[in-house]
Structure formats: structure tokens, C-alpha cells
Design goal:
The complex is a heterodimer of chains A (about 775) and B (about 130). The radius of gyration of chain A is 36 Å and the shape is elongated. Chain A contains 33 helices and 2 strands. By secondary structure, chain A is an all-alpha fold. Chain A folds into 4 domains: about 260 residues, no CATH class; about 260 residues, no CATH class; about 150 residues, no CATH class; about 70 residues, no CATH class. Chain B starts with a helix and ends in a 12-residue tail after the last helix. Classes of the chains: A mainly alpha (about 775), B mainly alpha (about 130). The interface between A and B is large, with 105 and 95 residues. Chain A: Pfam families: MbhD, MbhE, Proton_antipo_M, Proton_antipo_N. Chain A: Keywords: Antiport, Cell membrane, Ion transport, Membrane, Transmembrane, Transmembrane helix, Transport.
Chain lengths: ~775, ~130
């Protein structure tokens, strides 16, 4: 049992709760102060790297709902460690950065609270061992993402984007839950580490494919894979630190994490290889192509994030040892450079007032530190030596070249995508900072250190990782790849691989990319004219779908909730009769009716017929007084039945209450209008027929129930213990005032409330002018 | 007797539901009361009938073995009292509805927003004092 993991999550949650108060107490240093916790946790977990590399796992378990197989169980292996370090490390930087970026914002405290909530949830996702624990944390990340995208909730665009992200990722999350439950049902456990050991058993089940498809839906939506990618660019409505953290470095990688985590179960099946690799490649190309034509720094970065997520998914889909290594390396290097570039974009936006690349240029003099961070990060993104991104790209090419029999397709796709990434990295990392100074809404001046240091740190790490790959990157990549493959793997990374096909491809990529970058203006201008194609895209389908869903809901509500009580009742009766009838038809027993109905006396027949006739008369009479009198007959008749069949208490209360009701009715009814016939005879007949099917159903139910043997129940206990335990000889009374005394107390409370309500309603009329009502017409 | 009571239950349900589908609010209330009676009898009958053997422990005896089931009786007793509370409240509410809105027709009580349009003269003028 390892107490550090649950403590970390708990501490982050607690800090999240207190964040607004800390912000109030220390408005200038709150971010820095709070960053201490994730930074400390980062170092704690970093200290475990060598143990994890040696194959050790840290686990924690807490019983939750054992009968359902739900445990709060956590598990830290190499994959979880890589993600945890990214989450906590970048999280600490984002807290520092965010405090400065949103300085003076009236809801900064709320920002801290949401970010920390997300941090706790995301950490929970990557260390959960129980599939259902994972689901809970997974949805919590969706919710915190919703809150953060909608941070500027006064803006309609923000609210729209937040809802869109929530619906897409939340819908996928529900599909994933269904898939996980299926897996759990097949395997008999919800512990992922155990499920990963029983791939053969799981694959033999006919439910395997549905489970896979459902889980895939969860992963694809969360990681913004085509055709669900559109929520991610929309999520750029969030403040830039949020985009850097959630929508680039961590949360959107949750889908990648899920695929990696479950790949021992699924990978190497043909469905997995085809679908996951296919979706990944499609997303890679779509993201890179959609980035063309964007001039907003954040949108550019968002689409390239989509492309990079596609790369990771594609590599995981391929699933060879090399591909897993490439995926983990790419994931690590992407988190570093993309996080840095987003933070740079935020700093530029903060200091100049615009994020439009066509307007930004020559900022290197005014913002030298920001320019340095941007350059370093762009180096890695473009895949140029000596940055870590270069190694990642080389390993990626190595994988696609070895990916028989589709190596040609994958390599060509990767080449196109990477070339576009080179062009975009130039636009984001070079274009704003070089050339002549451009006109910006605000005169640029250096960003504060708190805005520059976090991206510098991340970008610097990306560079160092390339220079010292065996020290900085290899251990993490090896630990996580081992965890994905569940077998030892030796990872060797080097900047120089010698003259080989990968280097040739890299050179070609660079040449193509530079060409694109130089000619970006005509290319961007051309794609701007193709915008109308978006009308056929998934984003549009989402909008149309949502609009139609709303319309359908409105139509259905209008149909069902039309305000006519008669209609409601008919719907309820007919639905009940139909469902009960269906259940009856499906039951194999059929209708079992008793032969002997019990003895019957002449006066009982008279009593029964009297009640039936009285009840039927009510439907015909037009006199209010007669109705009340007949109601009395029905009530007294029932009281007599109770009396005859061993229920004297019931009979007494029925007599008393019936009398009271009649008196009450008489008092009130003359304040109410006379009865009129408002409905036409055919409608009345229809009503009566519908009501009769309901009545018939109840008669049948009574006969079916009474034909079955009595199941022994608690009444025996009451009968035996009334005297010894409660000293009462009237068992019904003992039940009411002793065995179930609290129920009776509740009943008294209800009566008292009704009494107060009656009193209040009567008092309300006093002092108000009485409305003179024209007498209702008699028929 | 079970057969007879099953038929009585069916008739009470039929009439109760039919009355609840009327347009007059008063009739709806009557339907509600009948429905309550029907449900009580349903619980009573499905609890099995036992003629003239109330669950009363005779003096001198420690317990009673063959008697009517006390549990449905306790349930129905509660139900009778509660439905009286409901009836009383509903009656007064119906009266108040009629006083304020000037109509007793369920079809006109569909929407509080449109009633004044149909009965402009019957809307009380208490707003003046507010």
C-alpha cells in the first residue's frame, strides 16, 4: 500500500477548495504559493523513477462497493509516472503563469480552483487501476475542462465552446463507461492491471468487439481525433494557460493514455490496428491541413495539437515495440514544446493585444526572452536538431518505414504532416519575432518573468532532452513503453544516427516545410477561399444535430406536456396497460387463476353489487349533493368489507374519515360551480373505454396475485412479538405506534403540513375581493 | 369473495380514472378520492382475505397464529389518513383556484399565462394593492 498517490489527489482537491481564499489573502503571490504543492509532488514522484524503471509498481486500495467490483484502487507504473510528471510539472508552471496572465481578473481565485481540481482529476485518471475509478476521474476532467473553457462565461462564444467540448467528450465518456463495464463483465474484474493479463480470455468473448468500439469512442473523442476533433479548436476560448495545460499538454492526451493503458488487451487485433492507426493517420493529416489558413496563434497551435494527437494514436495503433517507443517519446516532446508555444502565444497576446500572425513581427527586440522560448520550442516542433523533437521525428520515420505492408502510406502521410508542422512552427516561432516591427494594438514591451520563465523552462527542457537524450528522455520513455508493452524494453536514444533513410526523410520534410513557410501567404489566401467546405464538416454536423435535437425535444414536450390532464392520464393508463400486457404475454406461466374464490355469503354479494352500482352512478349524476352522498355509500361499503374481513381498526377509521370528508365536501362544494357536461358523448365513451382497460388490468392483477401462494413475510414477526415486545394486543396498533412509530410520526407531519396548507389557503381569501362568477350553464 | 372484490376494485379504478379525465376540477377530485379507495381495497385483497379473524391477541394468550394479516391493515390505515389530508388540501385548493381564476375547467387551467386572456373580467384586481 502506497499512501502517496491518494494523498496527492486529496491534497490537490483540498487546495482547490481553498484556492479562492488563498487568492484573496495573497492576491499577488497566490499562484506561486500554490505551485509549491504540485512542484513538491512532482519531485516526490520523480524520486520514484529508478524504482519504476526497475519494474516496481506502487499500489493503493480502498474498499468501495466490493459487491460490484468497484474499488478505489490506484496504481503507479511507468506510463502513469510519465503522465503524472507532465501533469504536476506543467501544472506548477501553469499556476505561476496563470497568476500573472490573469492578474487582476476578478475571478482569478476561481481559475486556481478549477485548475487544481483538474490537476487532481487528471492525476486520478493516470494512476487509477480500477476501470470505474478511472471513469469517475475521467468525467471529472471533462467537467473541469467545461468550467475552464467557459471561464469567460459572459461571452456567448465561450459558453458555446464549453458546452460543445462537454457534450463531445462527455458523450464519448459514457460510451467508454459502457465499454469498460462490458470488459469488466467478461473478465470478472474491474482492475485494469488484471484485465491486461487476460487478453486471451477477453478476446474470445463475443462482447469483445462492442467493448473495444465503445472504449475507442471514449478515447477518440477525448483526444480530439477526426471526426471529433472540432471541439479542440473551439476550446481555445479558454484563457491561454488553460489551453496550454488542458488542451495541449495533458487532458487531450487522456485518450492516448487510455489507448496505451489498454493496448495489452486490444493491440494486435486486426480491428485495433486498422481502426486506431486509420483514425490516427486521418487526424494527423486533417489537423495539419486545417492548420493551413489559420492566422490566430492559438488556432494554429490547436490544429497542430490535433495533428500531433493523431500521430500518437497512429503509433499506438501500429503497436510494434518501436511504435510504442516512438509514441511515448513523441508524447513527451510534444507536451514540452506545445505547452511552451501556447504559453508564448499567451505572453505575446498579453503584451501586444493580438494573436494574429499576419500582424505580428519583429517582436524579438521588445520581448527577447519570449522570442528565445518561442525559438527553442519551434525548433523542437519543426523536428530540427538538436531538439528532442528531432529524435522523436526520426524514431517516428523509423517506425513508419518498418511498418509493412503499409509503410508507404504511413510514411507519405507522416511526411506531409511533418512538413506542415515545420511551416506552422515557423509561423508561430519565427514570424512574430523577426523582420520589421509590425503594428499591434498595444505597444509591445517585455513580458514579466512569470510569463517568460515557464515557457523557457519547458522549451529549454526540450532542447536539453535532445542534447542529453539518454539522461533526460530515455528513462521516462523506457519506463512508460515498458508499462505499455508489459515487458522489459531497452530504449536507446541518440541525436546522430548516421546517414540513413530517416535523415533523408527529415531533410525532405524540412525542405518542403521551408517552402511552405516562405510561400505561406498565397497558400493561406488560397485555403481561405475553401472555407465553405466547412459546411460539410463534422462541426457543422454537430451544430445541425444539436439544433435538431432541440427541435425534437421541443416538439416532444409540446406533444406530451400539452397541459390536458385527460391526455396525460390516457397516456399513463394505456402505457401501463400495454407494458403490463406485454409482460403478461411474455410470461410462460400465463394467467393462473384460482378455482376457489373463497366462500361468499348472500349479504356480501349485496354489499359488493351496491358498491359497484353506486360507483357507476357517480359517472352519470349531475347533482353535486348526490355525488357526495354516493361517495359516502362507497366509503361506508368499503368500511363494511373491512369489518367483515378482520379489520375492525380499518372499518372504524374509514367510517370516521368518510364522515369527515362528506362534511368537508359539503362545506366547500357550494363554493364550486355546478356540474356541467363539457365533453361530447363520443369523447366520454372513449374516456370510459380507456378507464375500463385500466380497471380491467387491476382486476386481472388482483386475481393473478391472489392465485399465488403467500410468501412468508414480516407479519409473522409482528404477530408473535406484539405482546412480548410491545405489550399490546391489537397488532395493527402496535405496528403503527411501536414497530413503525417513526413512520407514523412522518404521517402526522404530513397531516400537519396539509392542515397548515388548508389554513393558509383559507386565510388567503380574507381581505381579497371576491370574484363574481357568472353561474355555469347547466346542460 | 376474492372474485367479487377484484371486480369491485376494477369498477372503482374505472370510475376513478374516468372521473379524473373530466374537465371539471371537482370531478377530478372525486376521481382522485375513488382511486384512493380502490387502491386501499387492492392492498387489502392482495393481502389475502381472512374472514372475521382480526389480528387481536385474546386475553390470556401470548400470541395469535391464524388471523388476518396485520401489515396491509397498518398500511391502509396510514393511507386512509393521508388521503384525507390530500383530499382536504385539494378541496381547498380547488376552491381557491376557482375563486382566483374564475374557472373550474381543466382545459382552461392548462397555462396560467393564457387564462387572463380568456377571462379578463374574472381576474382579481389585488395587484393594485401590491
Amino acid at each position: 500500500m502506497d499512501i502517496v498517490l491518494p494523498t496527492a489527489i486529496l491534497l490537490l482537491l483540498i487546495l482547490s477548495g481553498f484556492a479562492p481564499f488563498i487568492q484573496q489573502a495573497q492576491p499577488h503571490r497566490a499562484g506561486l504559493l500554490m505551485a509549491v504543492l504540485p512542484a513538491g509532488l512532482f519531485l516526490t514522484l520523480l524520486g520514484r523513477l529508478s524504482a519504476v524503471l526497475a519494474g516496481q509498481v506502487f499500489t493503493y486500495q480502498l474498499a468501495w462497493a466490493e459487491a460490484l467490483g468497484v474499488r478505489f484502487s490506484l496504481y503507479l507504473d511507468g506510463l502513469g509516472l510519465l503522465f503524472s510528471l507532465l501533469i504536476l510539472g506543467i501544472g506548477a508552471l501553469v499556476l505561476i503563469y496563470g497568476g500573472s496572465y490573469l492578474h487582476g481578473h476578478h475571478q482569478l481565485g476561481r481559475f486556481y480552483a478549477f485548475i487544481l481540481l483538474f490537476m487532481a482529476a487528471m492525476l486520478g485518471v493516470v494512476v487509477s487501476n480500477n476501470a470505474l475509478t478511472l471513469f469517475v476521474f475521467w468525467e471529472l476532467t471533462s467537467i473541469s475542462s467545461f468550467l475552464l473553457i467557459g471561464f469567460d462565461h459572459e461571452k456567448e462564444g465561450s459558453r458555446f465552446a464549453a458546452l460543445q467540448a462537454l457534450l463531445v467528450t462527455g458523450g464519448g465518456g459514457l460510451a467508454m463507461l459502457a465499454g469498460l463495464v462490458l470488459l469488466g463483465q467478461i473478465g470478472g474484474t474491474y482492475e485494469i492491471s488484471q484485465l491486461n493479463q487476460m487478453a486471451d480470455i477477453l478476446r474470445a468473448s463475443p462482447l469483445f468487439l462492442p467493448a473495444f468500439l465503445l472504449i475507442l469512442a471514449g478515447a477518440l473523442t477525448k483526444s480530439a481525433q477526426y471526426p471529433f476533433h472540432f471541439w479542440l479548436p473551439g476550446a481555445m476560448a479558454a484563457p491561454t494557460p488553460v489551453s496550454a495545460y488542458l488542451h495541449s499538454a495533458t487532458m487531450v492526451k487522456a485518450g492516448v493514455y487510455l489507448l496505451a493503458r489498454l493496448s495489452p488487451i486490444f493491440s494486435a487485433t486486426p480491428e485495433w490496428q486498422t481502426l486506431v492507426t486509420g483514425f490516427g493517420l486521418a487526424t494527423f493529416l486533417a489537423g495539419a491541413l486545417l492548420a493551413i489558413g489559420q492566422v490566430d496563434l492559438k488556432k494554429l497551435l490547436a490544429y497542430t495539437t490535433v495533428a500531433s494527437l493523431g500521430t500518437m494514436v497512429m503509433l499506438l495503433g501500429w503497436g510494434s515495440d518501436l511504435a510504442i517507443k516512438a509514441a511515448m517519446l513523441y508524447l513527451f516532446s510534444h507536451a514540452l514544446y506545445k505547452g511552451a508555444l501556447f504559453l508564448v502565444a499567451g505572453a505575446v497576446d498579453h503584451e501586444t493585444g493580438t494573436r494574429d500572425v499576419s500582424k505580428l513581427s519583429g517582436l524579438r527586440r521588445a520581448m527577447p526572452r519570449t522570442a528565445l522560448a518561442a525559438g527553442l520550442a519551434a525548433l523542437s516542433m519543426a523536428g530540427l536538431p538538436p531538439a528532442l523533437g528531432f529524435i522523436a521525428k526520426e524514431v517516428m520515420y523509423e517506425t513508419t518505414l518498418a511498418a509493412q505492408p503499409v509503410s508507404g502510406w504511413l510514411t507519405a502521410g507522416a511526411l506531409i504532416g511533418n512538413a506542415l508542422l515545420v511551416a506552422v512552427s515557423g509561423l508561430v516561432g519565427l514570424k512574430p519575432f523577426f523582420g520589421a516591427a509590425g503594428q499591434t494594438p498595444r505597444h509591445p514591451h517585455p513580458a514579466p518573468l512569470s510569463l517568460d520563465l515557464p515557457p523557457l523552462l519547458l522549451a529549454g527542457l526540450g532542447l536539453l532532452g535532445g542534447l542529453l537524450p539518454m539522461t533526460l528522455a530515455a528513462p521516462l520513455v523506457q519506463a512508460s513503453a515498458q508499462a505499455v508493452l508489459i515487458q522489459p524494453l531497452k530504449v536507446k536514444l541518440a541525436l546522430w544516427h548516421g546517414l540513413n533513410p530517416m535523415l533523408a526523410l527529415s531533410t525532405l520534410t524540412l525542405a518542403l516545410g521551408i517552402g511552405l513557410y516562405v510561400g505561406w501567404q498565397p497558400v493561406w489566401g488560397f485555403t481561405a477561399r475553401l472555407r465553405w467546405l466547412g459546411r460539410f464538416g463534422p462541426a457543422h454536423a454537430y451544430q445541425v444535430g444539436l439544433e435538431n435535437l432541440r427541435r425534437f425535444a421541443a416538439w416532444l414536450t409540446y406533444r406530451l406536456q400539452n397541459g390536458y390532464l385527460r391526455f396525460y392520464l390516457m397516456t399513463i393508463i394505456l402505457t401501463t396497460v400495454a407494458l403490463a400486457g406485454l409482460a403478461y404475454l411474455r410470461s410462460t406461466n400465463g394467467l393462473i387463476l384460482r378455482n376457489d374464490w373463497g366462500a361468499i355469503n348472500f349479504y356480501e354479494v349485496v354489499l359488493g353489487v351496491l358498491i359497484i352500482l353506486a360507483a357507476l352512478t357517480i359517472t352519470r349524476t349531475r347533482s353535486r349533493l348526490a355525488t357526495i352522498a354516493i361517495m359516502g355509500i362507497v366509503g361506508y361499503g368499503l368500511a363494511l368489507i373491512y369489518l367483515l374481513y378482520g379489520a375492525p381498526d380499518l372499518a372504524m377509521i374509514q367510517f370516521a374519515i368518510e364522515t369527515l370528508t362528506v362534511i368537508l365536501f359539503v362545506l366547500v362544494v357550494y363554493r364550486l360551480p355546478k356540474f356541467t357536461r363539457l365533453t361530447s358523448p363520443p369523447a366520454r365513451l372513449a374516456d370510459f373505454l380507456v378507464a375500463m382497460t385500466g380497471g380491467l388490468l387491476m382486476t386481472l392483477l388482483t386475481l393473478i396475485v391472489t392465485a399465488r401462494p403467500v410468501v412468508p413475510h414480516i407479519s409473522e414477526y409482528f404477530l408473535q412479538n406484539a405482546l412480548p415486545l410491545a405489550n399490546g394486543r391489537n397488532v395493527v396498533n402496535v405496528i403503527l405506534v411501536d414497530f413503525r412509530g417513526f413512520d407514523t410520526l412522518g404521517e402526522i407531519t404530513v397531516l400537519a403540513l396539509a392542515g397548515i396548507g388548508v389554513y393558509a389557503l383559507i386565510r388567503l381569501t380574507i381581505g381579497r375581493r371576491q370574484v363574481i362568477i357568472p353561474p355555469a350553464e347547466e346542460e | 369473495m376474492t372474485l367479487l372484490l377484484a371486480i369491485v376494485i376494477g369498477v372503482l379504478f374505472t370510475v376513478g380514472l374516468y372521473m379524473m379525465m373530466r374537465r371539471s376540477l371537482t370531478k377530478v377530485l372525486i376521481g382522485l378520492m375513488l382511486l384512493g379507495q380502490a387502491i386501499n381495497l387492492l392492498i387489502f385483497t392482495t393481502g389475502r382475505l381472512q374472514r372475521a379473524k382480526p389480528p387481536l391477541i385474546p386475553l390470556g394468550a401470548e400470541q395469535i397464529s391464524q388471523s388476518a394479516d396485520p401489515l396491509p391493515q397498518a398500511l391502509i390505515l396510514t393511507a386512509i389518513v393521508i388521503s384525507f389530508g390530500v383530499t382536504a388540501f385539494a378541496l381547498v385548493l380547488a376552491r381557491q383556484t376557482y375563486t382566483v381564476l374564475g374557472t373550474n375547467d381543466m382545459n382552461e387551467l392548462r397555462d396560467t399565462d393564457i387564462i387572463p386572456k380568456y377571462h379578463p373580467e374574472s381576474v382579481p384586481e389585488e395587484e393594485e394593492g401590491l
